[in-house]
Design brief:
- It contains 5 helices and 18 strands.
- The termini are far apart.
- The structure holds manganese (II) ion (MN).
């Protein structure tokens, strides 16, 4: 019998809409710049350079929370409304043509970012981990199964702060669509059921203050509403 020194961490799970089953989360991957206008607003040329990835720790996931605390060590907390892909199957070196077979469902995400800390990391050539992977930084809605959305979800994504529209795009404006994102990522790491992929944010990112309510809406998925407490 194996004895743990202390109880192992509880499984991190996200509800699946319309079922009692939970989606157990393994890893959280995020795409860097995946909308041309957002790449430009961050000072980059969005020509189709290959996508790049970072990840957030599983314990950064914030599911089922109407409110999250304003994080420490930042004066420039940003929202990033994003489509999240939930994988029900995995593999390595997946071809883009078959990549959507891995998708179990889609969710709405908010890739909260300590932009000031990220700017220092970029300038100093340091990792983004703590700029991106702080507590409650990976906000997510429940997962809508592909049986409801279709495998190739299309439509609009919109973010609002206190009711005011800040981000608006078609999902089709992604530089790298979901199938390509999965193909690229699986060339670097072996994907597995339970992996989540935040697929990047459109232009219009901006600062949040205590008390703000940020809502991200994606056609076919609904609205994810989060108050910054
Ligand atoms: Mn992002």
């Amino acid at each position: 019998m194996t004895a743990y020194l202390f109880p192992p961490p509880e499984a991190t799970a996200v509800a699946i809409r319309g079922t009692d089953a939970l989606f157990p989360v393994r890893r959280i991957f995020c795409v860097g710049r995946n909308y041309a206008e957002h790449a430009r607003e961050m000072g980059h040329d969005p020509d189709r350079e290959p996508p790049f990835f970072f990840s957030k720790p599983r314990d950064a996931l914030a599911f089922g929370r109407d409110e999250i605390p304003f994080p420490p060590q930042t004066d420039d907390l940003h929202y990033e409304g994003e489509l999240v892909v939930a994988l029900g199957a995995g593999g390595a070196d997946i071809a883009a043509e078959t990549a959507l077979d891995l998708v179990a469902g889609y969710a709405i995400g908010n890739d909260l970012t300590r932009r000031d800390m990220q700017a220092v990391a970029k300038k100093m050539g340091r990792p983004w981990d703590l700029a991106k992977g702080f507590d409650f930084s990976a906000v997510i809605s429940d997962i809508v199964p592909v049986a409801e959305t279709g495998r190739d979800l299309q439509g609009r994504i919109e973010s609002r702060v206190n009711g005011e529209i800040r981000q608006q795009s078609e999902l089709a404006a992604m530089i790298w669509p979901v199938a390509d994102v999965i193909a690229f990522l699986s060339a670097s790491v072996t994907l597995a059921p339970g992996d989540l992929i935040f697929t990047g944010t459109p232009a219009g990112v901006g600062k949040l203050a205590k008390g703000d309510v940020v809502e991200v809406t994606i056609d076919g998925l609904g609205t994810l509403s989060t108050k910054i407490a």
